[in-house]
Amino acid sequence: MTFTSEQWLKELEAELKDNILGFWQKHTLDEVHGGFLGEIDNNMQVNPQADKSLVLNARILWSFASAYRMYGGSEYLEMAERARAYLMTSFKDREYGGFYWMVDALGAPAQLKKQVYGQSFVIYALAEYYHATGNKEALDEAVALFHLLEKHGYDPEYTGYVEALARDWQPTEELSLSAKDMNEKKSMNTHLHVLEAYTGLYRVWKAEELRAKLAELIGTMIDHIVDAKGQHFHLFLDEAWNVKSETVSFGHDIEGSWLLFEAAEVLSDEAVLQRVRQVAISMAEAVLNEGVAPDGGIWNEAEPHGLASENKDWWPQAEAVVGFYNAYQLTGEAKYLEASQAAWSFIRNHLADPEHGEWFWGVDKDLKPLAHEPKISAWKCPYHNSRACFELIARLNSTAKESHV
Fold this sequence. Notes:
This protein is mainly α. It has a single domain, classed as Glycosyltransferase. It contains twelve helices and twelve strands. The mean pLDDT is about 95.
């Protein structure tokens, strides 16, 4: 089933403003200790002792800065400013620079390591805040963090970026993002989000040093992280790019397909753009052929023997909406438009919470919400779902304008 652009735009804006952003404005402020609550369960019970993650707080900043840039509105600016202030007062390491991975419920440092993934989200968020407000301090902070990452996180021998460093930027053995991740020197996930951060920063800061790093990173990802067929990402690698995992992440593949193309577009290098175009289409096609369930949702992951589970989490569905629409824009092939709209319908029918707002973490094989998973946590944030809405609204509006020229 397909629907018109006008109908889709109406649904996207209602979901974005009312169900996603409205939820975070209404339910997530920590009025006792400042910033935002660290965890709310699926029944809307707050865990007042939960640690607060760098990822969650940076993603809140990015989401509301984006909302302010798109719509204006003091209510969105206030949320963005609250998130930025909390990042600077509680997460910033005043002695060594960079940002802590976790603080406790009171805002005191809890996990001190410098996860490159987390630093990248701060760059991404601050660049977006600058884009929305013109606040020079935010841009200066983002640029300073870029320089820190390049000084300490970049691998001058093999290129790419290490997973994590100790508080003082020295090597550490504690590399993994979470208990679910392998403890390897390099990962797809970190490189994907450094790419995303550098793309956002280059939009607003056209320094040649950043341009060179962004161009190199695009090449590094295609040469080492995308597989030889150009269809899937390798998830974990050692420092010399030897592959350490056979798992396929359909959500990251479809997300990466459009983020790589976005990076090449912002870079504005025709040779890079042509190379990335083929990879983006190839990866989207592979997800369409291998990762889409009959109900229109996409599976989380697959192993060589088959699906890793039959659950469908929220964020791969959000990325499928954008990634498949991007493939449709690149090819004009209706199958990608249909896949994007099917992913959106799946979200509306199964993931958006009609009672409390926001989205469920995911659904099981019977399409029942995963009741044991949180509504808000270190990883459950407003970024994947709000970004899907921002992207589609912008793309649909752009297409509508072009058709009236």
